[in-house]
């Protein structure tokens, strides 16, 4: 992956989205808080560093998939574009903490009613996904955001498999498993990737 410089505060993309600050980053991209100068709304810009056909294809799939979803557990996507060597999703800015961060700072289990409420929300979101023939394939604490009102938001559909709108299934299972977290990936996903890698 080519070295990619972070976007600076105050820079503007598409003559519309002005960067307020970086919210997080990883090996494949970063997430920024931005101001939509057309609507005055605060949004999240999810940046993917794209230097190959597969990454560009996966990015476009995620954009179109999320744009066709309307469940409250999924962040709304309003736009996507390519600029300055990166691909960007314009998304609802979700305030709150990743479940992984909440787990890391606790010295005791969460209260049972709270856990059951989160589980109900996650299962309802998954039921909505599966009714559209979509499988997320990367459910883990760091992809679950807990809002200040204790609502769950499900993030990162980069390796989801299925259909949404006009999108077709992602066939490169061995490529997608590389992006998954093995501790949370279902056994069927891991075994299928192994078969694909060893004909």
- Summarize the helix and strand pattern as letters: EEEEHEEEHHEEEEHH
Beta-strand content estimate: 25-35%
| Count of strand segments | 11
Main structural class = alpha+beta
Outline: globular
Classify the helix fraction into a percent range.
25-40%
Quick check: average pLDDT?
Answer: 82
Q: Which residue ranges are poorly predicted, with pLDDT under 50 across at least 5 consecutive positions?
A: 164-178, 194-199
- The Rg value, from CA coordinates, equals 17 Å
List the total number of helices. 5
Strand order of the largest sheet: 1-2-3-4-6-5
Sheet with the most strands, sense and barrel status: 6 strands, antiparallel
Note the gap between the termini. 27 Å
């Amino acid at each position: 992956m080519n070295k990619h410089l972070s976007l600076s505060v105050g820079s503007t993309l598409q003559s519309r989205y002005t960067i307020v600050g970086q919210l997080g980053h990883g090996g494949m991209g970063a997430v920024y808080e931005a101001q939509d100068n057309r609507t005055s709304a605060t949004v999240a810009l999810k940046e993917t560093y794209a230097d190959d056909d597969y990454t560009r294809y996966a990015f476009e799939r995620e954009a179109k998939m999320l744009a066709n979803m309307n469940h409250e557990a999924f962040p709304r996507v309003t736009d996507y574009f390519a600029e300055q060597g990166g691909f960007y999703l314009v998304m609802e800015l979700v305030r709150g903490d990743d479940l992984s961060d909440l787990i890391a700072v606790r010295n005791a289990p969460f209260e049972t009613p709270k856990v059951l409420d989160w589980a109900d929300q996650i299962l309802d979101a998954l039921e909505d996904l599966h009714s559209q023939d979509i499988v997320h394939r990367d459910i883990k604490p760091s992809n679950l955001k807990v809002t200040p009102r204790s609502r769950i938001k499900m993030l990162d559909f980069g390796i989801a498999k299925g259909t949404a709108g006009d999108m077709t299934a992602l066939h490169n299972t061995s490529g997608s498993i590389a992006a998954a977290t093995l501790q949370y990936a279902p056994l069927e996903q891991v075994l299928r990737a192994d078969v694909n890698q060893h004909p």
